[in-house]
Amino acid sequence: MQLQDFEKLFQQKIDTEIKVEPKDWMPDAYRKTLVRQISQHAHSEIVGMLPEGNWISRAPSLKRKAILIAKVQDEAGHGLYLYSACETLGTSREETINDLNSGKAKYSSIFNYPTLTWADMGAIGWLVDGAAILNQVMLCRTSYGPYARAMVRICKEESFHQRQGFDILLTLCKGTDAQKAMCQDAINRWWWPSLMMFGPKDSESTNTDQSMKWKIKRKTNDELRQQFVDMCAEQVKILNMTLPDEHLKWNAQTQHYDFGEIDWSEFWNVVKGNGPCNKERLEARRKAHEDGAWVREAAAAYAEKKTSKQQSQAA
Amino acid sequence: MQLFIKKYYYGDIPDDNSGGADNITSNKNEKDWPLWEVFIRSKQGLDHKHAGSLHAADAQMAIENARDVYTRRNEGVSIWVVESKYIHASNPDDAESFYEPATDKIYRHPTFYDLPDELKHM
Ligand SMILES: [Fe+2]
Ligand SMILES: [Fe+2]
To answer: Which residues fall inside 5 Å of ion ligand 1, going by CB?
Structure first.
């Protein structure tokens, strides 16, 4: 069989909704695209622990502290599911993690914004996890089996993340004037970066939409973003707060909310490494990796000693 | 076909022009811990089912990590781990011929037999 025949068969499989599994033949570019996307996704979960980890020691009550720890721990788990899925494509864990620590690999820009107040924990849960959920629900149906299965597991855990965030904001918006103001301020700061999470506008892309054709992705950036805006524009009313967009308006004709233009120069600036916390985040990851080196060495030495003991006993 | 997708989806940000690809201090001698496959019995009476994989230095650590990674919400009552290198698998390229013996034996299925409606409990 020729390469073209393999590619044709592959596309047929995709078109008939048959999942691709690790040992199946797949085009090089499909594999590469997946490796990049899944590893970026994994890195995002891992770096995503940092802004929230920042508030664990300062959570306002034991209950909130326990919840926040559980959420951050979930994100570590998400990172691990995804690193595993990535490895099924023939990459090594070490390489993937080195790419993050060296600054070569990317993660979602949203985690390069600082968490200034407790209300930010609420806004992140509601908006950032909310945006991630829309993307991840779509990815439950992605064409690559291990990625889809990881997403199903992740989605089951995410809804608590969003709900606990909304719960924080709901409590604040029933509080004192200062607490209300803190709530609105957090929403104001996180709204636009959350919209940027969905990526550039569809019209920005000059490439043919191969990711859609391969069913790695099933909705475009703009579709997901619109879904998110429609959802949040309603939810924010329950908080008696507002979204910081004067152009946000229900459009009876399209049956969607219209919204203002995103500041794309900010988006690219953060992607390129000049966001408020890019350096800090990477340094924190590197430090954690380096500080853990002796643990990894010790565990490896212990395992080796145990096996050699077993071998000498068996002999 | 070496086409490299550059559509900047969420979770698919381009790798070029990164922030700081400078001074990486990775220990090249450091090796990954071995990879383990994790199987979980979700409740008594059910089979262990493949849940995913993880890295661990030894079996004990693999089981403990599996508990933390795959059973944070009571998803399991029993965990098996096996080093991935010991798993042998059938070849997907041979699937057609490999499973061919089963496809033409429709008489193995109860629906193959057309029996009178009056016949009960069968
Ligand atoms: Fe997550
Ligand atoms: Fe989350």
So the answer is: A 45, 75, 78
Domain B3-112, CATH number (from 2.40.128.90, 3.40.228.10, 3.10.20.520, 3.40.50.300): 3.10.20.520
User: Could you tell me what percent of chain A has a pLDDT over 70?
Assistant: 99
Question: Which residues on adjacent β-strands are paired with residue B49?
Answer: B40
Nearest CA in chain B to A297: B30
Residues of chain A with pLDDT under 50: 206-208
Phi, psi of B31 (to 5 degrees): -105, 150
Count of beta carbons in the 10 Å neighbourhood of residue B34: 16
Q: Judge: A211–B6 Cβ closer than 8 Å, yes or no.
A: no
Burial class (CB in 10 A: 0-12, 13-18, 19+), A195: buried
Burial class (CB in 10 A: 0-12, 13-18, 19+), A272: middle
How far is C-alpha A147 from the chain's CA centre?
13
CA of A15 to the centre of ligand 1 (A): 29
Show contacts of A132-136: CB within 8 Å, 24+ apart.
Answer: A132/A158, A132/A197, A133/A158, A133/A159, A133/A162, A134/A224, A134/A227, A134/A228, A134/A231, A135/A197, A135/A198, A135/A224, A135/B10, A135/B11
* ipTM for the whole complex: 0.88
> What is the identity of the amino acid at A113?
Y
**Averaged pLDDT score across all residues of chain A:** 94
Largest separation between any pair of C-alpha atoms in chain A = 80
Whether B7 sits inside 8 A of A84 (CB atoms) is: no
The count of CB pairs under 8 A between chains A and B is: 155
pLDDT at A206: 47
